[in-house]
Design a protein that fits this description.
about 230 residues; alpha/beta; Rossmann fold; five-stranded parallel sheet; two-stranded antiparallel sheet; about 35% helix; globular; ligase; AMP-binding_CS; CoA-ligase activity
Length: about 230
């Protein structure tokens, strides 16, 4: 953070599909007392620019293929993965992770009442709005996840929901990591890829949203013939 001047209360934008790096970026930002704001990779440039204008981030993390969506923002950008493109690229996540922490940086006290995330509503019934969650909110939601599953043995979860939503962020990028469970991450939802992953990784838990469950029930006979779901 000394290299980029990120301090408590600053907002950092994360524009990325699901990946194992999503929780790393989120927890790193929140540990500084800074605020993470995520956005849907399918959003248009206009929608992303509107969120940037509203949330006023000072730094952005994104993957090379989504760089064009930040090209007009003039934000300093840290790339997740290798690649080039148009934009004010200041570093890569890999380079940042190789650096030793600066022991002289000012460590600001982060309390449970401080803002942790600023996630935006989908805007289906009106203009998209920023929804604030505190560290206390996240702790409570993590405790709910831990209490719900009561994981005693090693379990494997499959993440099919987007981590930029509160469900994916709290359950997969935060709560299940805290439980010590294994999380298999799919970049995006594709039903065949999801079903194949269940057999390949011996997935034991599959948290879903209702439309996916309906699709599974409607195609149950064909799915049973083609995929091994016995681990669930």
């Amino acid at each position: 953070s000394p290299d980029y001047g990120i301090r408590k209360g600053d907002v950092v934008l994360l524009l990325s599909p699901n990946s194992i790096f999503f929780p790393i970026v989120c927890h790193s930002v929140m540990s500084l007392g800074a605020i993470i704001t995520t956005t849907n990779p399918l959003n248009t440039n206009r929608e992303i620019n509107k969120q940037i204008s509203d949330s006023k981030p000072v730094l952005a993390f994104t993957v090379p293929e989504l760089l064009p969506k930040l090209a007009d923002s003039n934000l300093p950008i840290v790339l997740i993965g290798s690649g080039t493109g148009k934009g004010k690229i200041v570093s890569t996540l890999e380079e940042m992770m190789k650096k030793e922490p600066n022991r002289n940086r000012v460590k600001e006290r982060v309390t449970q009442d401080d803002t942790a995330t600023l996630l935006y509503s989908s805007g289906t019934t009106g203009a998209s709005k920023g929804v604030v969650s505190s560290h206390r909110n996240l702790i409570a939601m993590v405790e709910t996840v831990l209490g719900r599953f009561q994981l005693e043995d090693q379990q494997t979860f499959l993440c099919t929901v987007p981590m930029f939503h509160i469900y994916g962020l709290v359950a997969f990028a935060t709560g299940l990591i805290a439980s010590g469970a294994t999380v298999v991450v799919l970049p995006k939802f594709e039903i065949q890829e999801m079903l194949s992953a269940i057999g390949s990784y011996k997935v034991t838990y599959l948290p879903l949203v209702p439309p996916i469950l309906v699709a599974l029930v409607n195609n149950a006979d064909q799915i049973r013939k083609k995929y091994d779901l016995r681990s669930l």
